[in-house]
Amino acid sequence: MIIRPVAHHDLDALQQIAVESGPGFTSLIDDRTFLRDKIQHSIDSFARRVYEPGQESYLFVLEDEDSGELMGTTGIEASVGLSSPLYHYHKSRVVHHSSELDLFNSVEVLNMCNHYTGCTEICTLYLRPRFRRANAGKLLSRVRFLFMAQHPQRFADTVIAEMRGISDDNGESPFWNWLRVHFVNLDFATVTHLSGAGNKRFIAELMPKYPLYTNLLSDSARDVIGQVHPGTRPALAMLEREGFRHKDYVDLFDAGPTVEAERSQIRSIAQSRQCRIQVLDADTAVLDPGPVCGEGEPLLLANTATDGFRATITDQARYLPEHQLLQIPADLAAQLNLEGGAIARFLPLNASSGEHQATEHWSSPSATRFSSLNRSNTEEFRHAL
């Protein structure tokens, strides 16, 4: 499995993924012109020299290196809400109190807002059902954090993810069905298609501008506020392990939760390591003094390029911490466009668990003081989330 930037020859497969993902997956829609423009925008974003986040959009694809088929997609929007508003509902409570009548009532409300304007959004994660295999989902989710760690100037301090809300097999959303009856007489597939294509004018024109009192909603609509689609639960669990938290912002159409984290505190970013590469083949003089870490254990490995970005999961590497050197076989180096002496970034797959042992295992045993500091920093980091 190889992660790489999307290319124009991926258009047919990308359209098929847009069909497979169904309504509610607004970052990919079944429209060839839209998808062609999205591919070009991504190509331009990877090629652009960037000093601060703007309207760049990075779309990666997961390719089966044996068959060449696309297994899935994953993406990053550098700074959302700049050219087209990013709307959410914020769930809060209002209190009505009359001291004269001695009556008190606390009511939950939803207020429309643009709270996340300017934030970085991770998005477009989809793994095709027939390609679901060990570590494929982890690679699609966590590769974005390796890219952010290597190119922090391209991304905002706050990173968000909009999680898909509840809808049935027919693409019907209980939350939207209530809004449709009372405010916008368009079906769920149509509004998600319009929104995904950037046509959000109808939101300002037709959606209610005053707080929605949730006790006035139908039971089925109220029950799904902040809930995720069953197929999205593994992705949410993975993000929660990275440190993402839900702070009561939900999607306008299906009421799915939006989660957020500070970029610097995302575990895969904080625990990733930069290293030099030593390519091993039959003629290589192997540098092997001192301890070796992680031999035979899976890690996520990426080069440090932008438009030439490549990443994969491998168990064929071993790390020499005293030299900050990662030894990999020649065929793997070729797949990742890495040469001997090149800089790469890697992340042990068990590092996001938050356990001290994961970090210490990849540290030099002789660096006792460094390991002690690492434990202290990890503990502080754990409780800061």
UniProtKB/TrEMBL annotation:
<feature type="region of interest" description="Disordered">
    <location>
        <begin position="357"/>
        <end position="385"/>
    </location>
</feature>
<dbReference type="GO" id="GO:0008791">
    <property type="term" value="F:arginine N-succinyltransferase activity"/>
</dbReference>
<keyword id="KW-0808">Transferase</keyword>
<dbReference type="InterPro" id="IPR016181">
    <property type="entry name" value="Acyl_CoA_acyltransferase"/>
</dbReference>
<protein>
    <recommendedName>
        <fullName>Arginine N-succinyltransferase</fullName>
        <ecNumber>2.3.1.109</ecNumber>
    </recommendedName>
</protein>
<feature type="compositionally biased region" description="Polar residues">
    <location>
        <begin position="357"/>
        <end position="376"/>
    </location>
</feature>
<keyword id="KW-0056">Arginine metabolism</keyword>
<dbReference type="Pfam" id="PF04958">
    <property type="entry name" value="AstA"/>
</dbReference>
<keyword id="KW-0012">Acyltransferase</keyword>
<dbReference type="InterPro" id="IPR007041">
    <property type="entry name" value="Arg_succinylTrfase_AstA/AruG"/>
</dbReference>
<dbReference type="InterPro" id="IPR017650">
    <property type="entry name" value="Arginine_N-succinylTrfase"/>
</dbReference>
